[in-house]
Amino acid sequence: MGWWHELRYVARRLDRRRAGEELEEEIRTHLELEAELNLEAGMSAEEARRAALRAFGNVSLSKEDSRTVWGFRSMEMLWQDLRYGLRMLAKNPGFTAVAVIALALGIGANSAIFSVVNTVLFRPLPYKDPERLVMVWEEGTLEGFPINSASAANYLDWRDQNQVFAGMAVIGRASFNLTGVGEPERIDGRRVSASLFPLLGTEPQLGRAFTAEEDSSGAGRVVVLSHGLWLRRFGARPDIIGRPLTLNGEAHEVVGVMPPHFQFPSRDDQLWVPIAFTPQQAANRGNNSFEVIARLKPGVTRDQAESEMDAIAARLRRQHPGVVKSDGSVIIPLHEQLVGDIKPALLVLLGAVGFVLLIACANVANLLLARAAVRQKEIAVRLALGAGRRRLVRQFLTESVLLSVIGGAVGLLLALWGVNLLKAFIPKNVSQVAAVAVDANVLTFTLAVSLLTGLIFGLAPALQASRFNLNETLKEGGRDSAAGRRGNRLRSLLVIAEVAISLVLLIGAGLLVNSFLRLRNVDPGFRADNLLTMRIALPAVKYPDQPRRAAFYNELLGRVAALPGVRSAAVTNWIPLTLQGDTFGISVEGRPDPGPQERPDIVTRVVSPGYFGTMGIELSRGRPFDERQDRADSAPVAIISETMARRLWPGEDPLGKRLRPGGPDSVAAWITVVGVAEDVRQFELTAAPRLQMYLPHVQATFFVPSHLVVSTQVEPLGLAAAVREAVWGIDKDQPVSDVRTMEEILSESIARQRFSMLLLGIFAGVAMLLGAVGIYGVVSYSVTQRAHEIGVRMALGARRGSVLRLIIGQGLKLVLIGVAVGIAAAFVLTRLMESLLFGVSATDPATFAAIPLVLVAAATLASYIPARRATKIDPIVALRYE
User: Fold this and answer.
1) Residue 203's pLDDT is what?
2) What is the CA radius of gyration of the chain?
3) Nearest to 344 by CA among 688, 749, 746, 830
4) pTM of the prediction?
5) Closest by Cα among 842, 837, 781, 778 to 813
6) Neighbours of 865 (CB within 10 A)
7) Alpha-carbon distance 19 to 17, whole Å?
C-alpha cells in the first residue's frame, strides 16, 4: 500500500477544496480497493468499511489537482485490478485450468487454421503487383471442362492482337532427365517464354533470365535452376553460372538461379528452359497444351479483358474453321487459379473453428456466471462500501481478459504444433503450403482474438454480477433472488446456443464422413493393391523413334517380369488418377462428321500387352492385346471403354467397328475395335468416366509410354530398388522417378476430401465435448442450488428415480431446444458446403436424423452424472445446511 500513502501525501500538499464528480468516483474506487484488502485480511464487512474510511481521511482535491494525479491513479488502479484478478484466478486453480483449456482449444484451433487461410487465401502472391496477374484460357467445348489450354498459334495471336495486357507469357509442361552429375534423375520443369520472369517481376538470385534471342527456334540451349535444385544437386556452388548441364541428353548452359522462395507455377518445378517454338509449332492450332499468363494494364478490369479476348477468339475461329474449336475465353486471377478448389474447404473450416471458439466462450461465460453467484457476498460488500457498478464491471472484465490472454498464450503453443500437423494433411497440389507458418499476422490475429474473446465471454457475467440486488444478496438464503434467477436463465440460453452450434458442426462433419465413405466405395475400375508404379520417360535424343522405344520397353518388361515377387508388368503413357492424360478427337466410320465442337474427344492410353491383367481391368467383350498378333506392322487396333461403346454405338456390338484420329480429312489409318474394357476413372474419383481408348504401344507413334506398372506378390515398395537396377542394366543414364504404389495414388486423389473430413470431424468432436461440459456444468450448478429443494423432496418420500428423472429432464429440456435450433440452422448452413460433398445431399435425411441422437445421448450422459450425485444428497444434511 505504499502507493496509497504516497497519494495521501500528494493530496495533503494540494489545496483542500471540494472535489467534483470525477474525484468523488476516485474516492469511492480507493475506498473499495482498501476495503477489499481489509476483507482479505479477515475483517468483517463493517470493520473493513470503517478501516477504509479511517485510512483515507478527509481528503479533497480540486478538479485541476485531480487531473494532476489522474494518470498516476489510473495506472495504479489498473495494476491493482490485475493483481486482484491474478489472486482470484490463483485461488481457484480448478476453475482457471478448465477455462484456460477450453479457451486454448478454441483460440489455438482458430490460430492454426488462420495461419493456413492467411497464407493460401489472403497473402498476396510473391510477385510484382500480383493483383494484375491473370491466367488466360480458351473457353471449354467439352462437357465438364469449362476451360481449355491454348495452342501455340492461338497464343501468338492473342499476344499480338490484344490491347488490354501489359505483357503475356506462355508455359508448357516438361520433364527432363538430368545426367552427368551423380545419379540420373528425372526433374520436373517448364518450358517458358522469355517474357515470363519479367512479367512476374522476379529476377534470378544468380545470373540472369532468358533473352528474347534465346527464346527463338535454333538458339543455344540454356536453363534457369530453382534454388532448391541448386542446393541439392550442386551444393550451392557460386560458379554454377555458365556451366553445362545435360538434360535429356543435350547440353544446356546454366544462366541463372532463382531466389529461395520462388515457385511457378507449381512447387514441384525445379528448372525452366526457353519454349522456343519451331515454325511448325508456331503454326499449330490443334495442340492445345499450353498455359498462358498475362498482366492487365493499369485501369483495365477483368471483364474488359475478357470481352476483348472473346472478340479475338471469335475472329480466330472464323479465320480457321474446323481447327479452332472455341470462340470464347476465360480469364481467371492468378491467385484464384493457384488456390484451386481448396478455397471452399478452408472457408468452411475457418467458420467451423469460429463456432468452436464461440462454444468455448459460452462455456467460460457459464463458469464465470456460476462463479459470480458464489461471489455474491463479496460483490454485496463492495456495493455496500460504495463501489460503482461500472467499477465492478471493469474488475470482472479484467479477470476475463486475463483468462483469455492466458488461454491465448497456451493456444498459440497449440497452434505452433497444429500448423505442422495441418501441413501434413493439406493436399500437395495446394499453392504456398510450404510457406504456412505462425508469422506476425497470426500473432496479431491471436492477440486480437484473445482480447475479443475475453470481452465476449466476460461481458455478460460482469453485467450480471453488477446487477445483484444488494438487500436480497446480503440476506441469508438470498440464492433464490431475482438476480439468481436471471443468472440461471442466461446460463440456460448459453447451453442452448452451445448445443445448437455443436449440432451444426456435427451434422457438417457427418455429411463429410458420409461423402468420404461413398467416395472410397467408388470403383476406380482397377485393383490398387500390390501395384508399384514409377516414371521412366525416355529422352527423344537418345530414343528418337518408335522402334527404339519399343525395344527398350520390351526388354525392360522381360527383365522386370523375371524378378522374384513380380506377377506381371506393363507400360503406359499415363497412370489413372494422376490428373494428366492425352486426348484427341476422332471420326467414326460410317457416321457424318458432327464438326470440331461436337467431335468426340477421347482419353487415350498407350499400353503394352498385359496392361489389363496387371492393373486388374476387366474386359467385358473381345480380346486383350497380343504381342504376336498386334505388331507394329499389323493393322491398327484399339480397346475402348464401356462408356465409349455406349456413346458411339448405342445398342450395337462395337467389336469390328472402326475409327481414326482427326476429322473427315484425316489421313490417319483406320483403327479397329477388338475389345471393350470396364470403365476406369481417369483423372479423379469424383468425375464420371469419360470416353477412353487403349492402343498398343508398338503401334502408337503420337503418344509415348512413360510409366511402368508392376503387379507384385510382396510389398510393392520393397521391389523398387530391384526394378531400378533392371532399368539401369539396360541404360545406366535412364532416371527412375515418381516411385509410388497405386494405393498411394488412390489415397492422394481424395486428399482434399480427407483433409476437410478429418479437420471438421475433429472440430465437431471438440465442440460436442465442450457442449457436454457446458451441460454438465449447468446441471451440476443447478443441483448445488437446489440442494435444499431436493432434500425436502426426499424427506417427503420422493424416490431416487424420480429425482434422477427430474434433474436429467432439466438438462434434456435445454438440449432438445438447442437441437431444434441447431437443425434449423444446419438446414441453411450446410448448403454452403455442397461443393465439398460427393454422392450425398447437403440436407441428407439420414445424417440429420442420426446426428441429433448422438448429441442427445452425450447430453444425457453429461446430465446423468450430476443427477446421480443429487440422489445421494442426505436430506438431514441439506436441511441443516439451509
Assistant:
1) 92
2) 37
3) 830
4) 0.76
5) 778
6) 12
7) 6
